[in-house]
Structure formats: C-alpha cells, structure tokens
Amino acid sequence: MIGLLAVLSLGTGMHPVREPARMAAPASVVIATSRGESVVPVSEESGVPALPAPYLSRALPLSAEVKSDWALVTFAGQPFRFLLEAPVFLHGNRLVPLAGGAFVARDTLFLPLQWLTDYVPSVFAEGYRYDALAGRFEELRITPVITRPRPVARSPRLLPSGVLRFPHTVVVDAGHGGEDPGNPGLYFPGFMREKDVNLGIAKLLRIELQKRGIEVVMTRTRDTLIALGDRGRYCRADCDLFLSIHVNSLPRRSGYQNVSGIETYFLAAARTADEQRVANMENEALRYDADRGSGSDDALQFILKDLQTNEYLRESAVLASLIQDHAGRRHPGGDRGVSQAGFVVLTTARRPAVLVETGFSTNPTDGRYLASPAGQLHIAQSLADGVVAYLRQYENKVASEAEP
Ligand SMILES: [Zn+2]
Predict the structure, then answer these.
(1) What is the Å distance from ligand 1's center to 33 Cα?
(2) Is the CB of residue 366 less than 8 Å from the CB of residue 189?
(3) Which backbone phi and psi does 103 adopt, to 5 degrees?
(4) How far is the CA of 177 from the centre of ligand 1 (A)?
(5) 63, 174, 263, 392: which is deepest, by most CB within 10 A?
C-alpha cells in the first residue's frame, strides 16, 4: 500500500495537488498598530497557517489560556473559544467553521491565521483590516469599540452568486485502480476499464473545481490501488467533502443493456435490492486490500459501526441531491436520482461524502459518452457545479445561523 505523502506528490498535472493554499499563505504577518509594527511568523506545521498566540498578545488586545481541550481567547473584550485541533471556534455561542483549528505545540498555543485575517476584521470592521497582498493586519483605531458582534455575513442574500466566501477543500476519489480494474466496460473501447474512466473524470473534476477556486486533494492521480478503507482518510480536518467517482454496470439479464443514466449515492443502509447490488459491487474491491480480510461480514461490520457514528448523514444527503440536480440534468443517459447504500469507501471520510455512479458501461450510449473526452468533461463540469451549489448553501446556512 502506498503512503499518503507518496500519493500527494504524484500530481501529474501542472500544479502539485496541494500547492495553491500553501503558496497563498505568507511566511509572516505584519501587525501594524498605533504602538508600532511587529512581525509574527506563520506556522504551517499543522497543514493550515497558524500564528503563535504569545506574539499576538504582545501586539494586540489579545489574551489566551489553554484549559483541557480548549483555548480560551479574549480579543478586544470579545470571547472566542477554540476546541483544540478542531476546525471550528465559538464566538460567544456562535459556531464558526475554519479550514483548520487551533493547536498547542512546544507549550505554545497557535491560533488559525484565518480567524485573525478573515473573521476578526468582519467582527471589528471599524477596528481592524487585513491586506492579504501585503500580509498586513492593521489596527484602524487605538481602541476598537463594538456594541454588538457582527456575523460573518450580514445576510445570506448578499452573497454574490458563483462566489464562494471561504476557502474549501474537496477530496476527489477516482474509484478502483491498479490491479483492481473495476467493471470491465462492455461499451468501452479497447483496453479501457472502469478505473481509467474514473481517473479521467477525476482529473478533469480537479481542474474544474480549481477553476472555481476550490482546493482539491486526489486519492490517486495515476493507475494505482488505494485500499478502500484508506480513501476516506484523505478527508479529515481541512476537508469539506468527499466525492468518489465510479461507473455502474449490470449483470447479463433481459434488457440489461437498456439501463442508463447517472445516480448519486450517500452512505446509509440500502433500501432496495438495486442499491444493495451497487454497494456489493463497489465493496468487492475490499478483496484487493492486503491487510483486510475479504469477508463481506467484515465490510458489513465496518459500515454498521460507521453508520452509528456518522454525523454527516443529513449533510451527505443534501450534497448528493445537489450534485444529482446538476449532473442528472445534462447526462444523455438520464437522471436516476439519489440513492443510498453502505459503501465502505464512504465510511472513513469525516465529512459529507457521496459516491457518483456516472453511467452504465453496459449501455451503448452511456459507454461511449463515458469513454469520450467530451463526455468526461461534461460530467466533471456538472459535478463541479453541484459541489459549488452545495458549498454555497453551506456557507449561507452558516451565515444565517450567525444572524443575531
Ligand atoms: Zn466502481
């Protein structure tokens, strides 16, 4: 099995997978106040830019203490509580999401750069501003006075369409790979298999998401096998959602070549025989996992355990329906709607997670569409539109929950 770092460095495109955000983070931030300027180094040891709290305390009206799992921060009289190593903080009773959390290293508390540069200026609009180009956080008045805290966005309706407010990271999982070819693809040309189509769509989806300002992590960027149980692990703290790409196929039976279309699954107990069939087909890949027994009991245990703990069921269902709304509309094989089943690949993602069956390789129209560059691009574009629709409604929901 291949290691995480090895996979992340395998980017075959022009851009290494995770570089955009890393390059965007400054090496340091200048804090400019009426008392002078100081330079605060930016740490990226947790994967997300963060600032050492003691430096901030010296330059700004900030005090901080760590109590068990929490960092209790007061900034200009306002209380902020950070659950350590979780990508959220509380401002009073308001829960605000972050790309990455506060953490303690070498007895020093680090606070997310995003909190200081995005959130603080939105709350203390007349007190502070951040100039991202210059990497300068400026105090506009000596003592900021606020009468009541302001939410991230004053009204969700003010969000311009097509623009995402926060940075987002999406994990794109091209199903199968390496010695696991996926389904053979009755109507795929030559030696093309499901794993090749999945990878083709995944790479185009990466480009489409990047064009929309979204960061992408790929579970694989070449023809290699990643264990099912490891794929979701790419989606943890700094990941907004997980999307796995597959191609459906039907066993030979009367009329099987007539079935076509795209459908999106989220993780929940299967309700129909067809949902169960698709889950069984995709979970088959477990037998390629060297360190896992191949028994289906094992897979079932895995899924049941996860269903008890998966707090993202509802969000996953919303994500599935928005993706299907966009993808179903443009697919020549038709819109098969949202389904649910127990997919091992979706169990380890600690975020909303869906699996898209992009069409049927056993249908001539779908098969040709999926194998063609134009078809793969159409699918990638519609999946990206669905992802943006989901992230936008998520941002609006956070903004409206933040309404006073
Ligand atoms: Zn598959």
Answers:
(1) 56
(2) no
(3) -155, 165
(4) 10
(5) 174
Rounded Cα–Cα distance for residues 250 and 363 (Å): 9
Q: How many angstroms is it from 61 CA to the middle of ligand 1? A: 54
Architecture of domain 162-400: 3-Layer(aba) Sandwich (3.40)
Please tell me the distance between residue 370's alpha carbon and the centre of ligand 1 in angstroms: 13
Cα separation of 260 and 168, whole Å?
32
Between 286 and 245, the higher pLDDT residue: 245
Higher pLDDT, 1 or 258: 258
* Residue whose structure tokens are 């009426």: 34
Q: How close is the Cα of 76 to the center of ligand 1, in Å?
A: 53
How far apart are the CA of 156 and the centre of ligand 1, in A? 38
- Which part of the chain has CATH 3.40.630.40? 162-400
Task: Calculate how far, in angstroms, residue 315's C-alpha sits from the geometric centre of ligand 1.
Answer: 23
Single-letter amino acid, residue 106: R
Q: How far is the CA of 356 from the centre of ligand 1 (A)?
A: 9
pLDDT tens readout for residues 368-386: 999 999 999 999 999 999 9
What is the structure's pLDDT at 3? 31
CA–centroid distance, residue 363 to ligand 1 (Å): 15
One DSSP character per residue, 223-243 reads S----HHHHGGGSSTT-SEEE
Span from the CA of 194 to the centroid of ligand 1 (angstroms): 7
Residue 10 CA to ligand 1 center (angstroms) comes to 22
Ligand 1 midpoint to CA 210 (Å) = 24
> Partners of 111 in the beta sheet?
51
CATH 3.30.457.10: which residues of the chain?
Answer: 26-150
| pLDDT, position 107 | 83
Q: Is the pLDDT of residue 336 over 90?
A: yes
Q: CA-CA distance, 127 to 117, in Å (whole number)?
A: 12
Q: Residue 299 has what pLDDT? A: 52
What value does the mean pLDDT take over residues 116-134? Answer: 87
Distance 312 CA to ligand 1 centre (A): 22
SS3 assignment, position 367: helix
**What stretches of 178-272 show up as alpha helix (H) in DSSP?**
194-211, 228-231
DSSP annotation of 350 reads: S
CATH 3.30.457.10 for domain 26-150: yes
